[in-house]
Design a protein that fits this description.
The complex is a heterodimer of chains A (897) and B (241). Chain A has 897 residues and is an alpha+beta fold. Chain A has six domains: 23-185, 3-Layer(aba) Sandwich (Rossmann fold), CATH 3.40.50; 223-346, Beta Barrel (OB fold (Dihydrolipoamide Acetyltransferase, E2P)); 349-436, OB fold (Dihydrolipoamide Acetyltransferase, E2P) (Beta Barrel); 447-623, no CATH class; 653-791, no CATH class; 810-896, OB fold (Dihydrolipoamide Acetyltransferase, E2P), CATH 2.40.50. Chain A is 30% helix and 26% strand. Chain A has 27 helices and 35 strands. In chain A, α3 (80-89) runs antiparallel to α4 (91-102) and α16 (426-436) runs antiparallel to α27 (774-809). Chain A is globular and about 95 Å long. With 241 residues, chain B is of the alpha+beta class. Chain B has one domain: 2-Layer Sandwich (Ribosomal Protein S5, domain 2), CATH 3.30.230.70. In chain B, the strands form two sheets. A five-stranded mixed sheet of chain B has the order 1-2-3-5-4. In chain B, α1 (90-104) links the parallel β4 (67-74) and β5. In chain B, α1 packs across α2. Chain B is globular, with a radius of gyration of 18 Å. The chains are: A alpha+beta (897), B alpha+beta (241). At the A-B interface, β2 and α4 of A face α4 of B.
C-alpha cells in the first residue's frame, strides 16, 4: 500500500489556509467485473459478459440522471471523482446516483479511482481543477480498457467537447450521450435526454418570431449582490409558497421583517417555483395594492377556486388575505407588504405530474415536437418539453422534470421522464395523488423483506419463557376497530377485581420485537413514516406479513404485545399502572357497530359484553373529566368513533398542538359575531365552554360551529423534547401538558419510537444510540410531520378524486350551508358529502358583483334592490355537477337553484 | 458528512480497520538520556527523557520511589494556522498529567528512590491522535534511556463515525464530533493503563471500539519492539567494533 500526501488549499471563514491531508493509494481496489482474472470478484457488480462498459463524465450524471435511472442503461462504472463532483454540485442528484449504485438489480459499480494506485493523478502545474478531474476520468477509462483487455469495449460518455476530443486523441472510445442513446435504437429514451444548451441556442436562432426574442423576466441578481443585499437589509430571504388556489399569488415568510411578503403575478415571481429559497425586494408602499389588480388583469389563465373537501384544520384551508380589496379602503393598502423576487438562492425543482396541453398533431409524425405540459398541481407553471412520441403522450398522465428557465421564455423548459397511465383512469389518478404527495408506494426491497421472520410465524417457546414477557393468554382480550380492518394494532381488556375496582389493559402489537433499530426494515419504516390510507387502497409503512399477520392482534391467535395495565376505581380514578411486554390471545375482534350492538342488547349478559359495558362507562367518565379540564370537542366533516388511550409519560418524542394564534381564530370570531354569538377564546377551557353554549334553534348549528372552529386550529405536530422548552410541549386540543400516542406502531413510526423508549425505560432493552443524537431525532420528527401531512393530503386528494368520479355520472341537488361570504358569491359547505366550494352569484366577466352588495360587518350579501339576501350559516339548495372548463382538469361546479 | 464511503474507504483512502503509516526513530536529541521521534501519518512528536537524576526540588523528593515529571507542549508551527499557544493552558496540563500517569504505571519507580525522571514531549506536527503519538514516543525514549519498565506502554485511538468503528482517527475525523476513544495498554501484561473517551457511546459499541483500539495498540507495540531490536543490534554492533 503506497502512501502519498496531497496538498490542498482551502478557504474557511474568509481566510486562506493551507491544509495538508494524507492520501493513501491502494492496490486492493478491484474493477468490479466478474470475469476479471486478476481482481477479487466477490464485490463485482457488473454483468457477466457485457459488450460495452460505460464510464460516465460528471456532466452526464448531473444532467442526465433521469436517463440513468432507466433500466436500459446498464453496466456502468461510476468513478469516485465523478461522485465527489456531483456531490458538491447537486446533492439530490448525488443521492439519486447513490441509490442506483446500491440497487442490486442494476449493474452500476463505483470505482474508487482516487484511491487506486494506478489511476490517481496529481494536478499538473497550470492545470485547473476541472481539467485535472477530466484527465482523471480519462486515465481511469484508459486503465479499465487496458485492465479488461480488448474483449470489452470501454466507452467514455461525455458531453464535454474538449474532454471527448482529448479522449479520442488518447485512443479512448468516447461518445456523447446523444449518439450513444441513438445507437441503442430505443426512441423513447431520447425523450429522457436533457438537451445540451448549445442545441437550444441553435433552435433559438431558427425561431425568429419577435415574441420569442422579447425578454419577459428581469435578470436574477448575481449571488454576491444578493448576499450583500441580504446583509444590508434591502433584500429578504425566505421560502416561496405559492397559493394552492391562485398560482399568481405567492408568499415569502421572511424572518428579517417578521411578516409574510406577498408576491403578485408571474413577472414579480420571476421564474421562482414553489418551495424555492428566494431573495425578495420589497416594492414601494404605494404599489402594494396596485399590483393586485394588475395581476388579475394580466392573468391569462382562469383563476377561480375549485370545490374541495372541507378543510380539517387551518393548514388545509385556503389562505385568506384579510381585506382583499373588496371595499377599497385605504388602510387595506398598507396591510401586507408585497415584493418582487430578485434572485433564487436555492432551487426546489423536482419532477411534476400532469398532462400535455392538447395540440394538433404535426403533419409528419416521428419528428421532434415542442409541447406544453400542464401540471396537475396548479401551483406550478406550464413546462415546455420536446418529444418524439406526441401521439402516445397526449392522453396520458406523465411525469416531467424541469431543466432550466431563461429570461426569454414565458415557461420553463423540461424533459419527459415517464408515463403513468391514461388520463381519468382511476389507478392512474391515484398514482398521481401518490407522486404529488411524495409517497413511496414501491414494493418493499428484498433487503427489507429479508428482515422479516420466516412465515408461517407463531409465538415460540422462547418468547413464552422470556422473563420480560408476561403470559396474558388467559385474559379475556378483545379489539374494536372499523369494519374490515386488517391491521389490528390494539386490543383491550377490562376485568372486575375482587375489591370492586377494575383492571383495564391496553395491548399494543409489539412491533419493535420485529423491527430492530438500524435494520433496513427500520430505515424504510422511518422513511415512510406512516401508512397512507386512500379510498381504495392502503400503502403500508411495514410489509404486509407484519401488518396483517404477525403484528395484527386478530382473534384466536397468540400474538406478542406491549401491554399497559391499570387498576381503576369504578369512578375511573387510577390506582396503579404498569407497563409490560406480553403474550395475548384475543377472544374477539369486533367492529364498532358490533360492539355497540352488543352493549345495547340488554339480554346479553355474557362476560365479554359485561367487559364492554364496564369499559364504556369508564371511558365516559374519563372523557367527562378531560372536558372539565378543558379539552376541546372539535368536529370535522367525517364522523368517527374513537377510543382514546392516553399516556402521560414524559417520553422523548411527543406530540404538541400549538395554541392557535389570535389571527388564526379571526375568521371564526368574525363569523360568530355576525350571527350574534360571543366566543371566548382566551383558553381552551373557555373556548370549550363557549362552544358548548353555542346552541341555536337548529340541530346542526352546534356541529357547524365546531367544524368552523376546528379548521382554525393548526395541526398537532411531533416534536423532540430536547428541542423545545417544556411550556411548548402543551397539547391544546386535549388540554394536556404532555401528550404522546403509542397505540399504532404498525402504521405510525412515531409510535415505534415511543415503544422503544418505553422498553428502554423499563429496562427491557437498551436505548438505541440514535436517541442520544438530538439532530438525528429532530430529523426524524420533521420527516414524520412531513409524511403525516402528506399522507393526510393524499387521503384528502383521494377522497376528492373519488367524489369527482362519483359525481361525474350523477349531477345532484342537495342542501348546503354558507360558510364564507365573498364579493361575487359565497363558499358553501355540503354536510352530506363533506365538501366545500364556491358558489358564484355573478359570472366571472362582470367583476365586482354589480347588483350585489356585500356587508362585511354583518357577513351578508344582498341584492341592490333588497329582494334577496344571503347570510352566513344560512341553508341553501345547490346543484352539483362535474364540468371541464379546461381540458384534462375536470372539476366540480356548484350552482344555486 | 460521509466519513466512510459506501465502498468502505475513509476520506484519506484507508479502510476502517487500518492505521496510518507509523514511523519511529530513536536518538533524536543527543543531549538527553533517551529520545525518540514518533510519527503516525502526519502527526509527528518528539520525546526526550532526562534521568533518573537528582531531584531538583528537594521538597518533592520521595524516599521510596522516583519522581516522574512530564511536560507536554505543542510547537507553534504544529498546526497550519500558527496560533500562539500559551504555555500551561488547560489542555496541555491535562495531557501532561495523562502522559505522566500512563508512564508512571509502567516505570519501576521503586527501583530508583530519591531520584527524578523528566519526560518532555513536543508535538511538531499535529494531525489528530497527538496523545497516542506522545505516549508511544515517550515509551521509546524511556526505553532508549534504559529506564526499567514493566512493559512497553503503547497507545492508539479509535472512534465511531457513520455507525462504523474507525481505527486511528486523523484530525478531520477527530473533529467530526463522534466518540473518540484513546487507549493505552501494556501489551505483554494485557493491561489497560489509559482509557479516555470524548462524547458518548452505548456500552456494547464501546466494547467493539475498544477491541479495535487494543488491536491498534498491539500493532504499535510490535513495531516499537522491532525498532528497539534494530536499535539494540546497532548498539551491539558498535560496541563490538
Amino acid at each position: 500500500m503506497l502512501h502519498n500526501k496531497s496538498f490542498v488549499k482551502k478557504t474557511k471563514a474568509g481566510r486562506v489556509m493551507k491544509q495538508v491531508r494524507e492520501h493513501y493509494l491502494r492496490d486492493d481496489i478491484f474493477c468490479g467485473a466478474p470475469f476479471c482474472k486478476v481482481c477479487d470478484t466477490s464485490t463485482a457488480r457488473l454483468s457477466a459478459s457485457p459488450s460495452t462498459i460505460l464510464v460516465l463524465d460528471t456532466n452526464v450524471v448531473l444532467h442526465q440522471i433521469d436517463l440513468l435511472e432507466n433500466l436500459a442503461i446498464d453496466d456502468v462504472v461510476v468513478l469516485s471523482i465523478v461522485l465527489e463532483e456531483v456531490k458538491n454540485k447537486n446533492l439530490s442528484v448525488y443521492n439519486r446516483i447513490r441509490a442506483i449504485c446500491s440497487n442490486t438489480k442494476r449493474n452500476f459499480f463505483v470505482f474508487s479511482n482516487e484511491y487506486h494506485r494506478d489511476t490517481y493523478i496529481k494536478e499538473m502545474s497550470g492545470e485547473t481543477k476541472n481539467d485535472r478531474n477530466d484527465r482523471a476520468i480519462r486515465v481511469a477509462t484508459q486503465w479499465y480498457q487496458n485492465h479488461l483487455g480488448s474483449g470489452v469495449k470501454v466507452l467514455l460518455i461525455t458531453n464535454d467537447k474538449e474532454n471527448k476530443r482529448k479522449a479520442n486523441e488518447e485512443g479512448i472510445h468516447a461518445e456523447t450521450v446523444e449518439t450513444y442513446v441513438k445507437s441503442l435504437d430505443q426512441p423513447d429514451l431520447l425523450d429522457l435526454l436533457v438537451r445540451p444548451s448549445e442545441d437550444v441556442d441553435m433552435e433559438e436562432v431558427e425561431d425568429l418570431r419577435p415574441s420569442k426574442r422579447k425578454v419577459i423576466y428581469i435578470e436574477h441578481k448575481p449571488m454576491s449582490e444578493i448576499t450583500s443585499g441580504l446583509h444590508r437589509g434591502i433584500y429578504h430571504q425566505g421560502k416561496l409558497r405559492v397559493n394552492r388556489y391562485n398560482p399568481f399569488e405567492a408568499y415569502v415568510g421572511s424572518e428579517s421583517i417578521g411578516d409574510e411578503i406577498i408576491i403578485y403575478g408571474r413577472s414579480n415571481m420571476n421564474r421562482a417555483f414553489d418551495g424555492d429559497i428566494v431573495a425578495v425586494e420589497l416594492l414601494p408602499q404605494d404599489q402594494w395594492q396596485e399590483e393586485k389588480s394588475l395581476s388579475i388583469a394580466c392573468g391569462d389563465e382562469d383563476e377561480d377556486e375549485d370545490v374541495h373537501l372541507a378543510p380539517n384544520s387551518a393548514d388545509d384551508a385556503p389562505r385568506t388575505i384579510p381585506q382583499q380589496g373588496s371595499s377599497g379602503e385605504i388602510n387595506a393598502v398598507s396591510s401586507r407588504p408585497s415584493g418582487r423576487i430578485v434572485g433564487i438562492i436555492k432551487r426546489n425543482w423536482h419532477s411534476y405530474c400532469g398532462s400535455l396541453e392538447p395540440m394538433p398533431m404535426p403533419a409528419g409524425s416521428g419528428g421532434i415536437v415542442h409541447a406544453l405540459f400542464v401540471s396537475k398541481d396548479r401551483r406550478f407553471p406550464k413546462i415546455r418539453i420536446q418529444t418524439r412520441q406526441l401521439e402516445n403522450l397526449l392522453d396520458k398522465r406523465i411525469v416531467v422534470a424541469v431543466d432550466s428557465w431563461d429570461r426569454q421564455s414565458r415557461y420553463p423548459s423540461g424533459h419527459y421522464v415517464r408515463t403513468i397511465g391514461e388520463i381519468g383512469d382511476r389507478d392512474t389518478e391515484s398514482e398521481v395523488v401518490l407522486i404529488e404527495n411524495d409517497i413511496n408506494s414501491r414494493p418493499f426491497s428484498s433487503q427489507v423483506l429479508a428482515c422479516l421472520p420466516p412465515l408461517p410465524w407463531s409465538v415460540s417457546s422462547e418468547d413464552l419463557s422470556n422473563p420480560i414477557r408476561q403470559d396474558l393468554r388467559n385474559v379475556r382480550v378483545f379489539s374494536v376497530d372499523p369494519p374490515g380492518c386488517k391491521d389490528i394494532d390494539d386490543a383491550l381488556h377490562c376485568s372486575a377485581l375482587p375489591n370492586g375496582n377494575f383492571e383495564v389493559g391496553v395491548h399494543i402489537a409489539d412491533v419493535t420485537n420485529f423491527v430492530h433499530p438500524g435494520s433496513p426494515l427500520d430505515d424504510e419504516a422511518s422513511q415512510r413514516g406512516t401508512s397512507v390510507y386512500l379510498v381504495e387502497r392502503r400503502i403500508d409503512m411495514l410489509p404486509k406479513p407484519l401488518t396483517e399477520d404477525i403484528c395484527s392482534l386478530r382473534s384466536d391467535v397468540e400474538r406478542l404485545a406491549f401491554s399497559v395495565i391499570w387498576e381503576m376505581t369504578p369512578e375511573a380514578d387510577f390506582v396503579s399502572s404498569r407497563f409490560t411486554k406480553s403474550v395475548i390471545k384475543s377472544s374477539a375482534a369486533m367492529s364498532y357497530v358490533e360492539a355497540q350492538a352488543r352493549m345495547d342488547d340488554s339480554r346479553l349478559m355474557d362476560p365479554l359484553t359485561t367487559d364492554l359495558r364496564n369499559m364504556n362507562s369508564l371511558a365516559k367518565k374519563m372523557r367527562l373529566r378531560r372536558i372539565e379540564r378543558g379539552a376541546l370537542t372539535l368536529a370535522s366533516a367525517e364522523v368517527k368513533f374513537q377510543i382514546d388511550t392516553e399516556t402521560h409519560d414524559p417520553l422523548d418524542i411527543g406530540m404538541r398542538h400549538p395554541t392557535p394564534t389570535k389571527e388564526m381564530l379571526e375568521p371564526l370570531l368574525r363569523t360568530a359575531a355576525a350571527i350574534g354569538l360571543h366566543l371566548d377564546v382566551s383558553t381552551s377551557k373557555a373556548m370549550a365552554d363557549s362552544l358548548d353554549h353555542a346552541v341555536g334553534d337548529d340541530p346542526y348549528f352546534n356541529k357547524l360551529i365546531r367544524i368552523l372552529a376546528t379548521r382554525c386550529m393548526s395541526q398537532a405536530v411531533y416534536f423532540c423534547s430536547g428541542e423545545l422548552s417544556p411550556p411548548e410541549y402543551h397539547h391544546y386540543g386535549l388540554a394536556a401538558p404532555l401528550y404522546t400516542h403509542f397505540t399504532s406502531p404498525i402504521r405510525r413510526y412515531a409510535d415505534v419510537i415511543v415503544h422503544r423508549l418505553l422498553a428502554a425505560s423499563l429496562g427491557i432493552v437498551k436505548l438505541p444510540p440514535i436517541f442520544q443524537d438530538r439532530g438525528q431525532l429532530t430529523g426524524i420528527s420533521d420527516n414524520l410531520n412531513y409524511r403525516h401531512r402528506n399522507a393526510q393530503m393524499a387521503g384528502r386528494a383521494s377522497v376528492e378524486l373519488h367524489t369527482l368520479i362519483y359525481f361525474r355520472k350523477r349531477p345532484t341537488d342537495t342542501e348546503a350551508r354558507i360558510v364564507k361570504i365573498r364579493s361575487n358569491g359565497f363558499f358553501v359547505f355540503v354536510p352530506k358529502y363533506g365538501i366545500e366550494g364556491p358558489v358564484y352569484l355573478t359570472t366571472r366577466s362582470e367583476k365586482g358583483g354589480g347588483e350585489w352588495y356585500i356587508d362585511e360587518q354583518q357577513q351578508k350579501i344582498k341584492k341592490m334592490d333588497g329582494s334577496i339576501s344571503y347570510s352566513i350559516l344560512q341553508s341553501v339548495q345547490i346543484h352539483m355537477e362535474v364540468v371541464e372548463p379546461q381540458p384534462n382538469r375536470p372539476k366540480l361546479q356548484l350552482s344555486l337553484i | 458528512m460521509e466519513y466512510v464511503s459506501p465502498e468502505g474507504l475513509r476520506l484519506d483512502g484507508r479502510r476502517p480497520m487500518e492505521m496510518r503509516q507509523i514511523r519511529a526513530e530513536i536518538g533524536a536529541v543527543s543531549k538527553a538520556d533517551g529520545s525518540a521521534v514518533f510519527e503516525m501519518g502526519n502527526t509527528k512528536v518528539i520525546a526526550a527523557v532526562y534521568g533518573p537524576r537528582q531531584v531538583q526540588n528537594k521538597s518533592q523528593q520521595m524516599n521510596d520511589q522516583a519522581l516522574v515529571r512530564c511536560e507536554y507542549s505543542m510547537a507553534n508551527f504544529s498546526t497550519g494556522d500558527r496560533m500562539r499557544k500559551p504555555k500551561g493552558d488547560r489542555r496541555s496540563t491535562e495531557i501532561s498529567l495523562v502522559i505522566r500517569q500512563t508512564m508512571e504505571a509502567c516505570i519501576l519507580t521503586h527501583l530508583m528512590p530519591h531520584s527524578q525522571i523528566d519526560i518532555f514531549v513536543q508535538v511538531l506536527q499535529a494531525d489528530g491522535g497527538t496523545r497516542s503519538a506522545c505516549i508511544n514516543a515517550a515509551t521509546l525514549a524511556l526505553a532508549d534511556a534504559g529506564i526499567p519498565m514493566r512493559d512497553l506502554v503503547t497507545s492508539c485511538s479509535a472512534g465511531y463515525l457513520n455507525s462504523t468503528p474507525l481505527l486511528d482517527l486523523n484530525y478531520v475525523e477527530d473533529s467530526a464530533g463522534g466518540a473518540d476513544v484513546t487507549l493505552g495498554i501494556l501489551p505483554k501484561l494485557d493491561k489497560v493503563t489509559l482509557l479516555q473517551m470524548d462524547s458518548k457511546l452505548p456500552i456494547d459499541i464501546l466494547e467493539n471500539v475498544m477491541q479495535l483500539a487494543i488491536e491498534g495498540c498491539k500493532a504499535v507495540a510490535n513495531y516499537i519492539r522491532e525498532i528497539l531490536l534494530e536499535n539494540t543490534k546497532q548498539l551491539e554492533y558498535r560496541r563490538g567494533v
